[in-house]
Structure formats: structure tokens, C-alpha cells
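Notes from the 1:1 (GR / supervisor)

We went over the backlog. Supervisor wanted to see one worked example end to end before approving the batch request, so GR pasted a single chain during the call. The sequence is below; no edits were made to it. Supervisor asked that the structure be written out right there so they could see what the output format looks like.
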Amino acid sequence: MNIKELILNPNNFFKNLANREVSLKTPFLIVLTFSVFMSIYTYYTTSTMFKIFPSDMQGIMSMMMIISATSALVGGFVSWIIIAGIMHIISMVFKGEGSFKRTLAFVGYGFLPNIIGLLISIPITYYFLSNAHIPTLTMEQLQNPEVLKQVIKSMFPKSMLYTNLLIGLAVTLWNLYIWTYAIKYARNLELRKAFIVALIPTLLFGLYQLYKIIKLII
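Structure output shown during the call:
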């Protein structure tokens, strides 16, 4: 795989790829890498957040951290299939031609920006959270939604959240850029139609990820 061409010239990358036999190996590895990094990011943020719970609850919290990390790992592959499925279905409206396997493979390459985004976000998050003051709450405090909300907000500095928000926006636009050309050649569409097909699932995927950050800011 020519990563440089995928990043700088996705039109040429997918044009050349369209003339080859469809393979899911490289897209699978890209999504796997994204999912692993997402799992690491989720595990670290939840493990930091769960420190507010009393020591006698840490055993349960450890299990919850594992569940959250596993969900993030599986979620990467679920996102891949759902996004490819939505694009494939929408492209039918524009008389798109090509197998779902090709759509799935080409869409998988579009997760490369998410890996780069996480490689930037993880160190930033670690820097801020490693220096955060994390109080241990009593059961009475934990049962108060307002107290819990304020404590969690205080753990995540706004400078960190705004930085990750900007990274998330950049990654979403980058996804759209790559997926437009991916679906163009996967389904043999005009560029304008390919952009429309890619826009809807990209926005849904991007907004969901941004929502998780924004709800900590508000």
C-alpha cells in the first residue's frame, strides 16, 4: 500500500486499486489498528475516570474498564461495516456498480486518518490526565448526579477537550475527502455523486465521535 499516495492523492490511489483484485487484508489491518488504538484510548480515559470510585468498588470498575475497551475494539469493525453498508445502499440510488466486498475494502482504507488522529490525541490526553487532580468520592456523592457531573468535568481540562475536538473535526473532513474517492471507484460514480454518498455516513460517524467530546465540555 502506498500510504503517501492514499493521503495526498486518493483519486489516483483508488483509481489504481480499482484495476486490481479486491482484497480485504490491508483494510482489515487498518481498521484493526484503529480499533486497537481506540481501545487503548478508551481504557486509559475510563481507568482515570473510575478512580473517583471508592477502593471497595475498584474490582467492579476494573471489569467495566475491560468491557469498555473491548466494546471500543469491536466498535471499530462495526463502524467499518455500517459505514460501508450505508454508502453501498445510498450509492444504489445513483445506479452505482460494484460488489459490496469492493465497497467494504475501499471504505476500510478511509480509516487511516482516524489512526493518525488517535496517535496525536492519545499523548495529549495522557499529558493532561496524568496531571489531573482526581478526588475519591463517597457513595453519597456518587449518587448525586450534579456532583458527579462537576467532578468528571473538572478531570478533563477544556484545553484538552477543545484540542481533541479540533483534531476530531480535521479527521472527519479527512475521512470525507478519502471516502469520496473510495466510493467513486468502488461503485463507479461521478465525483459529485460520490461526495453525496460519502457525506451522510461520514457526518454521522464524525458527529457521534464529536458528541462524546462535546458532552464533557457543556
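Supervisor's comment: The chain has ten helices and no strands.
Batch request approved.
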